[in-house]
C-alpha cells in the first residue's frame, strides 16, 4: 500500500533549497507534473514583487545549468529550469527511494508532500536522510485512501488547517471583516506573527491547488525586453 509523507526542511540545508532562496520576498512552488527528461523538476512558480535578485541567485547556483522565464500570471512567474541533478543530493535520495513529489513549496523553509509506493520505501528514505543529517521535520504520515475519505488533500499541515479553519469560521475573510488576527492568535495560543504565517501559507496552498492549471487561457507571455 502506498503511503504519503508530509515534511519540512530548512532551505539552507540542501542544494535545491539554497538555490531557490535568493530573495526572502519570493515564494516558490513546484509545478505539478511528471518530468519527461533527466532535468528533475523543470518548472517552478515564483511569487513576489521583484524577481531580479531571485533570478540572479538561481543563475549563480552550482546546481542550475539554465534558467528561462516562460509565463507571467499577476505577481507569479513560471520558470523553466535545467538542473545539474548529480549535485542535488537530497532530491536524488528522494528519487532513488521511489518518492514521488505531489506538492512542494518554500522560501526560507520548504514543505514537501511525497508519495511512496510502500512503507518499506519510506523507511529507506528515512534511513537515507538520517544518515546524511538532513534536518527533516515530519508533519504527517498517512495512507492516501484514508485521507481521501476525510479531507480534500490540499497538503495543509495540521497547524495550517487549524488556523485557516478558525479564520474562516470566525469571519476573518468576510467583508466587512468580523475578527482580527490577534483574536485568532489568542484562541490558538500562539503569536500574531505565527498565526499570520499559518493563515497566509494555508490560504496560498489551497488557492494554488484549486486555481493553478485552471487559468491557462489567461496566461500572458513574460516581457523579456
From TrEMBL:
Residues 3-125 form the Bacterioopsin transcriptional activator GAF and HTH associated domain. The keyword Transferase does not apply. The keyword Transcription regulation applies. Residues 156-206 form the HTH bat-type domain. Keywords: Transcription, Transcription regulation. This is Helix-turn-helix domain-containing protein. The lineage of its organism: Archaea, Methanobacteriati, Methanobacteriota, Stenosarchaea group, Halobacteria.
Amino acid at each position: 500500500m502506498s503511503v504519503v509523507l508530509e515534511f519540512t526542511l530548512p532551505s539552507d540545508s540542501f542544494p535545491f533549497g539554497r538555490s531557490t532562496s535568493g530573495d526572502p520576498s519570493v515564494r516558490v512552488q513546484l509545478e505539478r507534473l511528471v518530468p519527461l527528461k533527466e532535468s528533475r523538476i523543470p518548472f517552478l512558480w515564483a511569487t513576489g514583487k521583484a524577481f531580479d535578485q531571485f533570478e540572479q541567485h538561481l543563475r549563480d547556483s552550482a546546481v542550475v545549468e539554465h534558467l528561462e522565464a516562460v509565463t507571467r500570471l499577476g505577481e507569479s512567474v513560471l520558470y523553466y529550469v535545467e538542473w545539474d541533478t548529480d549535485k542535488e543530493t537530497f532530491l536524488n535520495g528522494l528519487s532513488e527511494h521511489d518518492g514521488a513529489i505531489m506538492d512542494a513549496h518554500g522560501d526560507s523553509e520548504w514543505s514537501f508532500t511525497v508519495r511512496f509506493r510502500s512503507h518499506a520505501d519510506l523507511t529507506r528514505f528515512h534511513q537515507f536522510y538520517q544518515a546524511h543529517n538532513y534536518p527533516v521535520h515530519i508533519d504527517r504520515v498517512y495512507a492516501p485512501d484514508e485521507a481521501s475519505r476525510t479531507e480534500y488533500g490540499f497538503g495543509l499541515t495540521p497547524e495550517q488547517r487549524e488556523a485557516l479553519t478558525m479564520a474562516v469560521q470566525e469571519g476573518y475573510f468576510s467583508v466587512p471583516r468580523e475578527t482580527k488576527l490577534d483574536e485568532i492568535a489568542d484562541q490558538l495560543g500562539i503569536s500574531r506573527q505565527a498565526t499570520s504565517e499559518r493563515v497566509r501559507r494555508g490560504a496560498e496552498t489551497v488557492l494554488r491547488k484549486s486555481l493553478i492549471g485552471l487559468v491557462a487561457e489567461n496566461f500572458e507571455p513574460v516581457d523579456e525586453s
